[in-house]
Amino acid sequence: MEVLNQSNIPFGDGVKTVIESEITEYLSKRLTLRGVVDFRGEYTFDTDAIATKNLKPISSDNGVEISIREPIKMVEVRKRFTIPKSVIEDIKRGKSDFDNKSLTKASNEFAKVENEIILNGCSDANIKGILPSIENKLSANNATELLKCIAKSIGVFNENFVDGAFKLIISSNTLANLYTESFNGLSIKERVDEILGAGAIVISQDIGDYKALMLSQRGGDFEFYSGLDVSLGFDGETSDSVEMFLLETLAFRVITPEAAILIEIKG
User: Fold this and answer.
1) What domains are there in the chain, each with its CATH number?
2) Cα gap 6→15, rounded to integer Å
3) What is the mean pLDDT of residues 189-213?
4) Could you give the C-alpha distances from 13 to 10, 19, 92, 123, 257, in angstroms and in order?
């Protein structure tokens, strides 16, 4: 794709494959939120907006009504980063412990933007994230109360006719608390697994240590629209470094706010 300028990258496909493989591995550990919503990948880089079928009336006069269609705009996310040419040479020589700091930093900062759009939205693109859309909130002061809130969430979902299965999104610090605190002889983590099933906990640092998010996995409630999925591009080079970038286009939509419950952790 011309926008990525990959034909001008000043190193071979072998080095490019190593860099892409490393970044893909890092991003797979950070882009966890796209895995708990519906991922729709039928769009392209040329897609500018997603139709919502929503209308906003702006005037009505003499029986003539004028309304604006309200699409969700695609967001273009570009993260520039620099790879020292010394690192490129190490990769060429097959050095397995090359300095990957520039790749991990770029991956972390890039992933944070995508996760923030899913969680908090982007008003300029008419995207309302999950957290601002939530109508049902619970609160917990510690891990034991968090367990009770998780159980209570199932009832709240049932009252709103929201089926499971369900995922629990928490930070790694919150997960550590679930492991270290117990309830009736078992760790809170084991109790959560009993309620939600093994594998229901999803780690995302971007949710923060003072929030936990319960999401239905029945489908059709939250949609992530991918135009160009995360891709590596070339920006230029200097005498001692290569300028690269990560690029993606995306949009996100909350269709059913009742399919999410926020648990505020006050401990």
Assistant:
1) 2-126+226-249 (3.30.2400.30), 130-221+258-265 (3.30.2320.10)
2) 12
3) 95
4) 10, 10, 10, 39, 45
Q: Which bin fits 185, alpha (ψ -120 to 50), beta or left (φ > 0)?
A: left
Measured distance CA(142)–CA(266) in Å, rounded: 7
Tokens of 20: 């892409």
Encoded amino acid at 184, one letter: N
Q: What does the pLDDT read at residue 56?
A: 86
Find the largest Cα–Cα distance for the chain. Answer: 76
Residue 137's Cβ-side half-sphere holds a number of Cα atoms within 13 Å equal to 12
Residue 1 has pLDDT above 80, yes or no: no
pTM: 0.91
**Which class for 29: exposed (0-12), middle (13-18), buried (19 or more C-beta within 10 A)?**
exposed
Dig out the tokens for 108 from the structure.
Answer: 């972390």
Exposed e or buried b for every residue in 180-201, given b needs 16+ CB within 10 A? Answer: ebeeeeebbbebbbeebeeebb
Least confident piece of the model among 63-72, 117-126, 130-139, 203-212: 63-72
In the beta sheet, which residues pair with residue 232? Answer: 246
DSSP 127: B
Residue 105 in tokens: 């930093």
Nearest to 136 by CA among 266, 263, 265, 267: 263
Token reading at 52: 């919502």
Q: Is 195 helix (H, G, I), strand (E, B) or coil?
A: helix
Q: N- to C-terminal Cα distance for the chain?
A: 49
As given in the structure block, the two tokens for residue 82 are 């620099």
